[in-house]
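Could you join me in thinking about how sequence relates to backbone shape in a protein? Would you write everything just below, so we can both look at the same thing?
***
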Amino acid sequence: MSVLFMTAVVGLGAFLAGLVGSLTGIGGGVVIVPLLTLVFGVDIRYAVGASLIAVIATSCGAAGTYVKGGFTNLRVGMLLEVGTVAGALLGTAIALMVSPNAIGILFAVTVLFNSLQSLRPRLPDPPVTEASGKIGRALRLAGSYRDAGTVRHYEVRAVPLGFAIMLIAGALSALLGIGSGVMKVLAMDRAMGLPFKVSTATSNFMLGVTAAASAGIYLQRGYVDPAVTFPVVVGVLAGARTGSRLFPGASNRSLRTLFVAVVVAIALQMLYRGLTGALG
C-alpha cells in the first residue's frame, strides 16, 4: 500500500470522523482509532495520540462557530467539565479493583437502552419548578438559541443529576479508555432538559478541554507521530468545518437520529469486545 494512498484513505476517514463528531458532539475518536489500528496496523498508543489531537481539532473546528451562533452553553459546559474530571480521577483510582469487561458490557447495554429511548417522540419537558430549577437559576445556566429563524429560550433543570452522570462518564472514560461525549450529550439532553442542538454544541466545546489534558501526556511521551497525525488533523478539521456549516440548518430530529446511529454502533462494538474478553 503506497504512502500516498494510505494518507488519502486516512484523510477521508478523518473527514467523516470530523463531520460526524461535530454534528453529534461525541468526537471523532470512535472512527479514527479503529481505522488506524485495524486497517493500517498503527500502534494503539500512536492511534490514541492522533485521535486526541483530532478531537481537539474537531472541537476547534466546530466549537467557535457554535459559540458564535449562540448554540453552546458555556456555563453548563464548564460546570459539567468539573464533574467529568473528578470522575476520571475516581475511575483511575478504582481501575485495578474492577473488571473493565464487565463495566464495558454494562455501559454498552445502558447506552443502547437510553439512546434508543431518545428516538421516541419526546414529551414536553415538565415545567421547571422552584425545586428542580433552583440551582440552574442560581448559577444562571438558562440560555437561548436561534433555530429556523426563531429564538428559543430554555431553562436547565436537574443540575445535580447531570453532574452525577458526568462523574460516571468521567469514571467510565478512565476505566475503559473511551471518550465521554456520548454520556455528555445524553446527560444534557435527557436529564437536564437542554435542546439537542445545545447539548451537541456544548459537548463539542467540552471535548476539546478534556482531550487537551490527555493529549499533553501523549505528546510528552512521544506518542504523537506527525506522519500519522497530520492527515488526521487536516481531514478532521475539514469535516468539522463542514459539519458546523450544516449544523444550523439541521433539525433536532435528524441530529438525534444520526447520534443514535453512531452510538448504537459504538455500543455494539463495546458489547462484543466486553463479551469476548469476559468469555476468552
Observations:
- The chain is about 75% helix and 5% strand.
- Strands lie at 143-147, 150-154.
- Residues 3-279 form one domain.
- The CA atoms of residues 21 and 27 lie 4 Å apart.
